[in-house]
Each structure stands twice: as structure tokens, then as C-alpha cells.
Amino acid sequence: MPGGARLDGVANPVAWHVFTDVQTGSIRDACRRGKITVNSLLLKHLDASVRPEIGTPSAIIPWMIPVNLRGDVSYPDDTENHVSSVDVLVCPDESAFSIHQKILHQLDQGEHRANFLLMELGGILSHGFKMRYLRRDRARPRGNIGAFSNLGSWNADSRIDSADSWLFCPPVVHGQRLSAGCVTFRNQLSLTMQSHPHESLAPDLVTRRMVLWVAGILSETE
């Protein structure tokens, strides 16, 4: 069963799950056979896990996928922003292969670089202009349901002597319902999901989403 946490009286806003190294290997093997990334498989089942809880489960859902731009951009200060994103539109029951092709196409088109340039432009605009832009932007009926990010694989050769598991999840920003993240530590993939603190939560909603997410992923390895 997934783990969870309780914060300031909000019912289980965070849930997580850690796969065994054998399960992680099976997930990777399934993705290699399907000629897709692990990210595409995880996003497919993350999307499916939230559809039962939204008002229009047949909708096309936009997900924000962060993109690492290190190597494409550089700054004197390594702590400056090197991340952009693409918004991937996921259809009901869409295959992981189709999602994989969409993400590749958006990256090939340079959508992540265009978004990065827009963020950089924001640094030279006046505060008043940015506030007017944000008010207009938030009034539009669009945006993404949340972010999904993969922190990558760490300590695959077990140089770090630790029995601990690592968890990772991006922040939930204004206008999003949830965020989800994954990281692989010592060849064990972990998933973490959190809801926005202002989302109206049914009891154990995030845990139910996590149960569906994990079950969907494991179904690909059977």
C-alpha cells in the first residue's frame, strides 16, 4: 500500500510508493519492449489515475513536463534557472507510445526553448506589466492540471551505503490541482504525489490516486 502524510488537518495531501528493484527492472524492460521512455509510461497511468476524480473524465488533460536545459543554456551562477517545460495534452485511454511521440515532437519543435525565452523576457518587464499579464492569463480557461517530473536515476551502482528510499515531488503551483514526481535510487523507482492545499479533498483522495497509478504501471509488466 502507498504511504501518506497528514499536514495541518488536511486529509492525506501526500502519497508515495516505492517499487522493488525487481519491479523497477520489469518496468524498464516493458518500456524497452514498447520503445518508449519510462516517463511516457508513468504519465499515461498518472493521467488515468486522476480521471475518475475530475468532473469531465473524457476531457483532454494538459500536463506540465519540466525540461532540463543544462547544456543548452549556461550562467555564471550554476544555481540560476536551467529548467523550462512543455505542456503535453493527454487524451482518454491514450497509449504510452502516442504520449511518447507527442513529447518528442514538442521537443523537436523547440517548445521548451520558446517557453524558456518567455520566462527570461519576464525578467526585464516591469512589475505592473507582469501583474496585468498574470491576471489576464489566469482568467483564461486553460492551463495544466499539474506537473510531472522525473529526477532521474541515482546510485545505480550502490556506492552510497544506505537502506533508505528517496522520494521526490515538484511543488504544486497556483492553478494546478496536483503534482507528481519520481526518482530512482539504488535501482528502486519511487513515486510521490501531492495535491494542492486549496483543493477540496475527499478522504484519502491522493492515496486512491496513488493506488490506481501503481496498479496501472504494474499492469504493463504482467
- Low-confidence runs (pLDDT<50, min 5 residues)? 5-10, 137-141
Run of helices and strands: EEHHEEHHHEEEH
Strand order of the largest sheet: 1-2-7-6-5-3-4
What is the β-strand count?
A: 7
Measured between the Cα atoms of the first and last residue, the distance is 19 Å
Instruction: Report the principal-axis shape.
Output: globular
Number of helices: 6
CATH superfamily: Nonribosomal peptide synthetase, condensation domain
The domain tally reads 1
Radius of gyration: 18 Å
Using the coordinates above, name the CATH class. Alpha Beta
**What is the overall pLDDT average?**
80
Strand content: 15-25%
Question: Largest sheet, described in full?
Answer: 7 strands, mixed
Question: Judging by the overall fold, what is the CATH architecture?
Answer: 2-Layer Sandwich
Helical residue percent band = 25-40%
CATH topology: Chloramphenicol Acetyltransferase
Derived structural class: alpha/beta
Topology:
Elements: E1 3-7, E2 10-18, H1 21-34, H2 38-50, E3 61-68, E4 83-90, H3 96-108, H4 111-122, H5 127-139, E5 146-154, E6 178-185, E7 188-195, H6 205-219
Parallel strand pairs: 3-5, 5-6
Antiparallel strand pairs: 1-2, 2-7, 3-4, 6-7
Helix pairs in contact: 2-3, 2-6
